[in-house]
Amino acid sequence: MRLSTVILPIRRWHEGGREVWQRAEDLGFHAAYTYDHLSWRVPFREGPWFGALPTLTAAASATDRMRLGTLVTSPNFRHPVTLAKELISLDDVSDGRLTLGIGAGSAGGYDATALLPEGARSWTPRERADRFAEFVPLLDRLLTEDAVTHEGRFFSAGDVRNIPGCVQRPRLPFAVAATGPRGLKLAARYGQAWVTTGDPKLFADGTPDQSLAAIGGQVAKLGAACEEIGRDARELGKILLTGFTPDRPLDSLDAFVDFAGRHAELGIDEIVLHWPIAGTQFAADEKIFEQVASEGLVQLGNRD
Question: pTM, whole model, 2 decimals?
Fold first, then answer.
């Protein structure tokens, strides 16, 4: 089991931003991720929100060991050609510490219509799935081939050059967020890891046991998608981004150990905790958060 954190890009770099990322490394987190949105939900919609890739570039220069990444990047406002160039550059700056969390996006984020004409509807789930199905293979090519030409339904690339490529070979790892059949097939084929937030229908009114069962079902479907293409599902990391299930793993150290242990039994091997933000859905006691960061996995090992 690995323990990571996600740090929302809401702090000015020279007014506490740098210190949070450095503190995350000091606490021993395996990775620190950030959201890749133009803006996000209330209350964050009306406050500071910085770009994910510049933030990660700064974090790469302020840290030495911890992995860095997005949870998640989507085609909502990203084009694979320009994204690939930025990822190769960031992988270089971080000396090969970058993971790309990638998903189809949703209609609920405020960047879903940011690039569309005023009054235009956001894409349907099927349209998002169609775009994602083209986005991921093209991005894979752009990060592994020196020159790429592609003419697709949604994206084009005309003799695009990406030399010298990623520090990590054959490319930086993809952590694919997916629960539907098409997304799970992409995770099975292109992912080095898979990401879930659980079942959103259970967040408000479900129980921890129901949530656990739902995630178990998702893991099983991922296994079936891997089996279909002859891939061993054990090759994929399985990441749970917390904060969107009925569980409360930051109520205490014991609560975290129980939560982590139950999900480890399903095959989850990386748990991501939101860095506490007072007055939001991610509010938590910072002392408990740091205790979990420094002692949680040790206690989990002792329990096992």
Answer: 0.96
